[in-house]
Design brief:
Blueprint: E1 3-8, H1 13-23, E2 29-35, H2 62-68, E3 81-87, H3 95-99, E4 105-109, H4 116-124, H5 128-133, E5 135-140, E6 158-162, H6 177-188, E7 193-197, H7 202-210, E8 215-218, H8 220-223, H9 228-236
Length: about 240
Amino acid sequence: MAEIIPAVLPKNYDDLKNKISLVKGIVSLVQVDICDGIFVKSMTWPFQSPSNEGVATNGLDLHFQNILNEQEGMPFWEDIDFELDLMVSDAVENFDIYTKLGAKRIIFHIEAVGDIENFRDFLEGIDSYVRDSMEIGVAINPQTPVEQIFPVINNIDFVQCMAIARIGYQGEPFDERCISHIKTLKEKFPDLIISVDGGVNLETGARLVDVGAERLAAGSAIFSTDDIIDTIEQFKSL
């Protein structure tokens, strides 16, 4: 049975809190998609225009700033774990900042990390205390040759295969190239944990599980339904 991970693309902190409240008590972990408007065109919490309400004078979202200062935690942090999907241009440079959000898993995007050898050195240099308490994953877009991820396989805990060509958005069409990526990874690295994000619904989810995916991150397929509990149960039965 695959792990089902509701994926939240938060417009702001209130949206993040509301979405998490809808699945709290149903799942144990939620994926939070963080988009900076640079690596991807979309922008999510905590990146906001300084003119928005709830933004401090330094441009940071107030809740994000409070979390960094340990004055509050992520919404419902006592009841649910988080997976941060860092669709940002500064994931490596600001890794220490993102870890302060208390995530159980952090996902880098191979297209955003720069030189692969430098990235591997970065992964090898992560503090052992952090490494022991957090899973590290690397995402790869369907249009990126899967071989680009091979040099860091031994330094990560899982790979997230993106199943949409335009990442940072929900409701995008499923990209068949994801299936090929999964097959190649499973053939070369049979013990590697594969997660899939984007374009995941009950139909594509069944296909993804059949070719070896162990984790399915779904956004609109879960949050746009009338019965979220029933939808998640259907996903779990795949």
